[in-house]
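Here comes just one.
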Amino acid sequence: MTIVALATALGVGAILDRIVARILGRKLAQVELAAAAVAVANEVLGQVRVDLENCRRQLVDTQATLAVANTQIFALRTELAAYRRETGSEGAFEGF
């Protein structure tokens, strides 16, 4: 005899129904809580994606700025080397 049949035979079906409803209610509450947590996590993940994309764009901009700066530094070094050759001061300011 199953528990349900035994409970029904003993006249405690209503008690069993309340116990089952309470257990199912708790499970439903846990599922709803988990669903809310997933929704919050998805929202946060979406914002993280936006932030990462903004960082990527800033990195691309910074790389472009550095490329321009490197080109300018190279041009200045070339100009300085030419000046040193013209003036005969090739050994001066060797670290530059």
About this structure: The chain has a mean pLDDT of 83. The two ends are 95 Å apart (CA to CA). The chain has two helices and no strands. The first helix runs from residue 3 to 10.
